[in-house]
Each structure stands twice: as structure tokens, then as C-alpha cells.
Amino acid sequence: MQSAEGLRAKLKLPPIDQIGIVVRDMRKAVEHYETLLGLGPWTVYESSPDKYLFKGKPATMRLRQGKAMLGGIEMELIQPLAGESPFHEFLATQGEGLHHLAFHTDDFEGRIRQFQAAGFQPLLLVEAYVETYGGTVKACHFDTRAVGGVIFEVVWKSWLQKPRT
């Protein structure tokens, strides 16, 4: 098993962009974080990815997602609704709680190769058009729990890309 320091050096991780928390009830979770931490406003929407692989096999899932900013980091609440996913498994085996830390990248495929070179295989690979943001998101989860107790996500969002000149 690699050390956290060794993994960070190998992957050259950028700053954390998002904290992902799995919840059972979006309405109650949003209310809790608004009251407890003063977080908000929240953007809440449902999604089903256009392309989705779970543990390397085609699958389906439907989620309710809630997003708000915590300083410069996006807080994402994830309520699994249907299908199969690491979010469903997490909720069934561990209950609600911290699921993943996400790192935004401009080089999605290159970052996936870095994780694979470090010995991690994709747990979830997804591409979806997100109407709420008017763009496409690509995300890949890697099970890095043996190193740091949490899943790492590599994410690319078209709406965050700089226009080409």
C-alpha cells in the first residue's frame, strides 16, 4: 500500500475542488447544512448520466444532487434514487457521510491515466449533460480509501473551461 505522501507526489493533485457527501433525504440535508453552517443558496437537481460505467460495466443510476459553495470549495450532497452506484453502496454499507473529494482537471483523460499508473482502476466513469449548468460533466471515481479513507474523484466541467482564443 502506498503512503498518502507518496500518492500525492505521484498524482500531483491540485487543490480540492469539491466535497461529496451521500445523504438519504436531500430536503432534510439541505435544511441541516443551511441551519448548522449557514450554507446556501443550494442548487438542487436530478440527474441520470448519458454514459455510465460502474466497476467497468455499463449501468444506470439516477441521483438527486444539491450543491452550494463552502468558501472556494463546492459542497455536493448526493441522494441516490435508482440504479446502482458507489453512492447506493456507500449508503447501504456506511450510511450518510463523506463519500469523496474531487479534483477539477483540464486534462480528464491524462488525470485518469495518472491514477491508473498509480495502481487505481475507475470505480465509476460518467459523462452527462447537466441542464442546470448548460454543459457537460465528466467524472471518474477511484477507490483510494486504503490510502486516505475516502474516494477521490477526477472531474471535468465544460462550463469551467476557458474559451480558446
Q: Could you outline the blueprint of secondary structure elements for this entry?
A:
Blueprint lengths: L3 H8 L6 E5 L3 H12 L5 E5 L3 E4 L2 E2 L2 E10 L2 E11 L2 H9 L2 E8 L3 H10 L4 E9 L4 E8 L2 H4 L2 E7 L8
Parallel strand pairs: 1-6, 7-10
Antiparallel strand pairs: 1-7, 2-5, 3-4, 3-8, 5-6, 8-9, 9-10
What does this structure look like?
About 25% of the residues lie in helices and about 40% in strands. Strand 8 and strand 9 (about 135-140) form a beta hairpin. It is built from five helices and ten strands. It has a ten-stranded mixed beta sheet with strand order 2-5-6-1-7-10-9-8-3-4, sandwiched between helices. The chain is globular and about 40 Å long. It has a single domain (about 5-160), classed as 2,3-Dihydroxybiphenyl 1,2-Dioxygenase, domain 1 (Roll). It has about 160 residues and is α+β, with helices and mostly antiparallel strands. The longest helix is centred in the first third of the chain and has 12 residues, at about 25-35. It starts with a helix and ends in an 8-residue tail after the last strand. The model has no long low-confidence stretch (mean pLDDT about 90).
